[in-house]
Specification:
Layout: H1 2-27, H2 45-54, H3 57-61, E1 79-82, E2 85-88, H4 105-114, H5 129-132, H6 137-147, H7 172-179, H8 193-203, H9 209-212, E3 230-231, E4 238-239, H10 254-263, H11 276-283, H12 288-300
Antiparallel strand pairs: 1-2, 3-4
Pfam families: Cytochrom_C
Organism: Rhizobium pisi
InterPro entries: Cyt_c-like_dom, Cyt_c-like_dom_sf, Cytochrome_c-type_DH
């Protein structure tokens, strides 16, 4: 009887160990190798600046309340409140200690496209690497080079304020297992070069879905509700539906959408408001062809 109990206990321990190993293998950080980031050639900082504005880096990483050229000092400090706790946006200026000045391209690239920090740990998806995963390696290289041309800041953001169990970073591997992907968000019936460019900008660096798409209880996108609107993460109202079936921009033409992104005015001469103000200001730095591509994509996505 005792021997049977011991064998049973050893079997349980073996199953637990195997289960733990399987869980770790599934959830462990999975950075791209350094060789992936080698031989990309000299970066193009002019393109890096366009990627910078497409990605809206200043909207989160500039010091709260900064204006004008001061917004280019990416000292961080913004507090992002969520159902999971409060995230504090870090310094990504080229300062070697407080920012990312000592990072390698591989470390930066893996943060952007794999959600893995330079310490080898998972990053929280409050940093939208779930969208940035779709960026090209060239754009990541060019963006990194441009960021290094910006002013340094010695500011250090406070640590995230997250209750248990959200403060356990290893659990983020399970979240990535469920939600993380670098594949297109939607299949498009119309996909000429302009629409494909728009898809890249919206689903990748522009990370528009991070606000415009509903999430489930674990914070993952509801894939069948892509861009169909969501509760305002700032706490009041809703972020609008921007699919062709919406009551907001569903009746707008591609030209109307492109004009709105350039000027901030709707076809009926209302003006952009809320958090979209910063987004629209960022997009004005892009070439007209990119704004037109975004508009073409928004007219091509499935209506919800």
């Amino acid at each position: 009887m005792v021997r049977r109990f011991i064998r049973f206990l050893l079997c349980l321990i073996g199953v637990a160990v195997l289960g733990g190993c399987a869980f770790y293998l599934i959830t462990a950080p999975d950075p791209l190798p350094e060789s992936h980031w080698a031989n990309l050639g000299a970066p193009d900082t002019a393109n890096g600046e366009m990627v910078f504005w497409a990605g809206g880096c200043v909207s989160c990483h500039a010091a709260p309340g900064s204006e004008g050229d001061a917004k280019l000092t990416l000292s961080g400090g913004l507090a992002l409140k969520s159902p999971f706790g409060t995230f504090h946006v870090p310094n990504i200026s080229p300062d070697e200690k407080a920012g990312i000045g000592a990072w390698t391209l591989a470390e930066f690239g893996n943060a952007m496209k794999r959600g893995v920090g330079p310490d080898g740990k998972h990053l929280y998806p409050s940093f939208p690497y779930g969208s940035y995963s779709r960026m090209s390696d060239k754009d990541v290289n060019d963006l990194f080079a441009f960021l290094k041309t910006l002013p340094k800041s010695t500011s250090v953001a406070p640590p995230h304020e997250l209750p248990f169990p959200f403060n356990i970073r290893l659990a983020l591997g399970g979240w990535k297992f469920l939600y993380f992907s670098d594949q297109p968000r939607v299949a498009l019936a119309k996909s000429d070069d302009k629409v494909k460019r728009g898809q890249y900008l919206v689903e990748g660096p522009g990370h528009c879905g991070e606000c415009h798409t509903q999430r489930d209880a674990l914070g993952g996108f509801k894939s069948d509700m892509w861009l169909a609107g969501a509760p305002n993460p700032e706490g009041k109202g809703r972020i609008p539906d921007i699919t062709p079936a919406s009551k907001n921009i569903g009746g707008w033409s591609e030209a109307d959408i492109a004009s709105y992104l350039e000027t901030g005015f709707t076809p009926d001469f209302d003006s952009v408001g809320g958090s979209m103000v910063d987004v629209q200001k960022n997009i004005t730095h892009l070439p007209a062809s990119d704004r037109e591509a975004i508009a073409a994509y928004l007219k091509a996505v499935p209506g919800r």
